[in-house]
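Page 47, continued from p. 46.
Same chain as before, 67 aa.
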Amino acid sequence: MSIITSPSAITPTRPTNRPSRPSLLGLWLQRIRTRRLLAALHPDQLRDAGIEPWHLRHEIRKPFWRG
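Result:
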């Protein structure tokens, strides 16, 4: 006697309580938005945040695919 199993019984399902990993596209879009927001900050806001102007220029010039 053999037991027939369906493919859904063999493949494991992903647990629903675990958060999914963000996609690469989502990460790139987040970097673009963050760098645009940084570029739009007023110099007083940058000073309050402790961000040096040279560091800001370096960060906003990076392409979106570089972290």
